[in-house]
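Input record (Table S2, row 334):
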Amino acid sequence: MDAVNRQVRLAARPVGLPKASDWDHTEEPVAEPGDGEVLIKLKYLSLDPAMRGWMNDARSYVPPVGIGEVMRAGGVGEVLASEHAGFEAGDHVTGMTGIQEYAVLPGDGLVKVDPGLASLPVYLGTLGMPGLTAYFGLLEIGKPKEGETVVVSGAAGAVGSVVGQIAKIKGCRAVGIAGGEEKCRHVVQELGFDACIDYKSENVLKSLREQCPSGIDVYFDNVGGEILDAALACLARGARIPLCGAISQYNAEGGMRGPANYMSLLVNRGTMTGFLVFDFADRYAQGAREMAGWRQEGRLKSFEHIASGGVPAFPETLLRLFRGENLGKLVLEV
Ligand SMILES: NC(=O)c1ccc[n+]([C@@H]2O[C@H](COP(=O)([O-])OP(=O)(O)OC[C@H]3O[C@@H](n4cnc5c(N)ncnc54)[C@H](OP(=O)(O)O)[C@@H]3O)[C@@H](O)[C@H]2O)c1
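Output record (NAP complex):
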């Protein structure tokens, strides 16, 4: 094949927000698939806050992306050629493809998706990793019961938007926290949350006390920092906090800030439990099936924020997550 594969590679470990010089833009010929492999033409790439952590040279749940390596990313695309019995040209698949236009990957790590059931970006959002994070994090770690109050930060984003909608499906009161009036309006009017607190213009602690008069039963934490402290100050007895992420801290220079109000867990007999979506890998199909059913019934809405510019636009597009410039799942069209 004569086509050229444009890629973005990690050039340097960032300090604070990633900058243009932390990336290399490279080109190489598109490779042929070997035995057991599949050649994919990428259509959409997933942009995730976790990418910032993968760029650090630190021990984590996955090894850091090496200097000079293609940036790690999830993607969805079309199979062009297959040397794996499970796939044929024309199939659509998702997997960890990296920030590039074409990928040759072992077929065993890929999942077939049906573009007739949902548009391709949805498989990077609600029916993909972020949706499954919301599903398992809320249901297995948060364990919401009917009538309880569930609060979620990052409520207009990929994970948070699904958390609140599932909370409503389970008969809970859903309160979101998001940045800006427009996002809060979206969270209530489009996603059906009961309320949304604009952390950029409101006193979060005061608004949480107003919106959660009997306290917070489940606080699904996507952001950490001051918002986590405010939520800790409002816990109901026996509250559960699924610790999903801490985006407010990912670019902190000089170390992440931990919660100050953690004694509230003792006072309220609460728990705060970290989890990774990968912990539930053997149940992904079950979670995706149930969420696909809710989508078809109109009970779960998906919003994707589709950025243009292709692979070369990746470095600048990634920053949108940290500036809050996405509504729903941020994907890059290749
Ligand atoms: N544990 C897991 O397995 C797992 C899996 C996937 C994701 N995660 C985590 O889940 C969280 C949400 O990820 P996502 O993919 O759904 O991203 P997202 O919410 O779609 O996008 C990130 C959002 O974070 C908000 N944000 C950025 N800086 C902030 C700050 N300083 N304070 C408060 N909010 C800030 C912005 O929304 P506003 O405009 O509202 O500020 C932005 O739109 C992240 O922490 C991510 O690392 C964890």
